[in-house]
């Protein structure tokens, strides 16, 4: 089954350097790095617990990907793409008051009446008596 998903079933001792090189080559994507090495992703996750440099490499690679994505977002904003503008205002613009809020009311703005069905509170009151 491992072979079907592109992971070789062979055993090899992988150095931290091998793992770091594969992670860099695959831009921080652990599953792809594992596939390129011929090992399981769990080996890499276990190894990163032992060597902080492996985790730092993954974080650095993912940071570059996020920077690239944010650069594309800024480009879309500058082109006037409505989706990019709305997304930015809803996320990093929240501090300036750009949030979505839904108000739930009854018909014509009236108050809502809430009825509890299978109200657990009524059961506990009966058992405490």
The stretches of 5 or more residues where confidence is low (pLDDT under 50) are none
Radius of gyration: 26 Å
Helix content: 55-70%
Content of β-strand: under 5%
Spatial gap, N to C terminus: 60 Å
**Counting H and I runs of at least 4 residues, what is the number of helices?**
6
Tally of structural domains: 1
Mean pLDDT: 86
Give the H and E element order: HHHHHH
Q: What is the makeup of the main sheet?
A: none
Structural class call reads mainly alpha
Shape: flat
> How many strand segments?
0
Summarize the structure in words.
It is a single chain. It contains six helices and no strands. It is 57% helix and 0% strand. The model has no long low-confidence stretch (mean pLDDT 86). It has one domain (3-128). Helix 1 (16-25) packs across helix 2 (30-37), helix 1 runs parallel beside helix 4 and helix 3 crosses helix 4 (52-78). The protein is an all-alpha fold. The chain has helices spanning 16-25, 30-37, 41-50, 52-78, 82-91, 120-128. The longest helix is centred in the middle third of the chain and has 27 residues, at 52-78. The protein is flat, with a radius of gyration of 26 Å.
